[in-house]
Design goal:
eight-stranded parallel sheet, alpha/beta, TIM Barrel, single chain, three-stranded antiparallel sheet
Length: about 375
């Protein structure tokens, strides 16, 4: 199958059950995409990632363009072959990382000139170059180049930033449509910006819809505004987007963020939280967050989470995992990352099942109750 399309299967309230069809497989939605920044989901083999239930992973344009280089990856058969992942890959545009290099970049209408954080070499990331890199990598879903508006921002600054992103989005689509390496079934998503201002979000969404993308992302959130503000932005932004196309909330977030966003109609997510937290001794469970560095786990024989069918979650005691983390052992980081990715995928699977059964409200209530009860160590 070479067609990219979104299939709506069921809806419960605003929560949606669907499927994104790509040439390399179906992405079941709601979906969480583990972040594979440099062509790897840190601390995991690709078969482990797939075994958790992940249908798609995310690659990072900025890091891959600098090392090993998009042209090199293309010469070696593309990112899928390079990292031994045969499922769909979504790549970001590189804009978020470049914008964070405040002392090393200069932004113009053309794009962003920046110095590599690795060796100081100068680069230009324009909408056209971003698309070129993503096509060289061969990703199945690509993102337009945008400016991630910082928070807080005045309405004037947010408007200027959003309108630049709109112009870049049109250039990105023109470059994507004309790229010689583009293959049937690849898709380019637009990104809605506008900070916390409803009128700006509406203007951004309308401009992107007129340009006509097969999917739409909500950007510029999870940048310090807090969950309450983020959810308010989603409340007035999501109804602006086409119901027959996927909606992707970028860079979010905690398990509670995911549940709240799905209840509002978001279909796709990515975030470094499960992998980064695992490397630093923190895990997410059906009983809430657990910090394995805490001394109370030193004599705890329980597994991390008996409700997960993942070896890292069920086959190792908390006491052993505490020992590994306290001693800086690589195995500890690997096991906790594996568990976290498995937990996130189980959460998404449970939400998909709840929407399909028309029981999402009941699921959400149980989830909140379990998280509030917390994880209490035995006496």
């Amino acid at each position: 199958m070479s067609e990219f399309r979104y299939e709506a299967i069921a809806q419960d309230g605003k929560a949606r059950l669907g499927a994104v069809h790509t040439p390399r497989g179906v992405i079941r939605t709601p979906a969480f995409m583990p972040v594979g920044t440099a062509g790897t989901v840190k601390a995991l083999y690709t078969d482990q990632v797939k075994g958790t239930g992940a249908d798609v992973v995310l690659g990072n344009t900025y890091h891959l363009m600098l090392r090993p280089g998009a042209e090199r990856v293309a010469s070696l058969g593309g990112l899928h072959k390079f990292m031994n992942w045969d499922g769909p890959i979504l790549t970001d545009s590189g804009g978020f990382q470049v914008m964070s290099l405040t002392k090393l970049r200069k932004m113009t209408e053309e794009g962003v000139a920046f110095q590599s954080h690795l060796d100081g070499a100068r680069h230009m990331l324009s909408p056209e170059r971003s698309i070129d890199i993503q096509c060289l990598l061969g990703s199945d879903i690509q993102m337009v180049l945008d400016e991630c508006t910082p928070f807080p921002a005045t309405e004037q600054d947010a408007a200027k930033s959003m309108r630049l992103s709109l112009r870049w989005a049109k250039r990105s689509k023109e470059a994507f449509d004309a790229h010689p390496r583009r293959t049937p079934g690849q898709a380019l998503f637009g990104i809605v910006q506008g900070s916390v201002y409803p009128e700006l979000r509406a203007e951004s969404a309308q401009g992107l819809i007129e340009t006509d993308f097969p999917g739409y992302s909500i950007g510029g959130l999870a940048v310090g505004e807090g969950q309450e503000t983020m959810l308010k932005v989603l409340d007035f932004t999501l109804p602006l987007l086409p119901a027959d196309k996927p909606r992707y909330l970028m860079g979010v977030g905690t398990p509670d963020d995911l549940v709240e966003a799905v209840s509002r109609g978001v279909d796709m997510f990515d975030c470094v939280m499960p992998t980064r937290s695992g490397r630093h001794g923190q895990v997410f469970t059906h009983g809430g967050k657990v910090n394995l560095k805490n001394a109370r786990h030193a004599d705890d024989p329980r597994p991390l989470d008996e409700r997960l069918d993942c070896p890292a979650s069920r086959d190792y005691s908390r006491a052993y995992l505490h020992h590994l983390i306290k001693n800086g052992e690589i195995l500890g980081m690997m096991l906790l990352t594996w568990h976290n990715v498995a937990y996130y995928q189980k959460l998404m699977a449970d939400m998909r099942a709840a929407v399909g059964a028309g029981e999402f409200s009941a699921f959400m209530r149980r989830f909140k109750e379990e998280q509030a009860a917390g994880d209490i160590a035995p006496l």
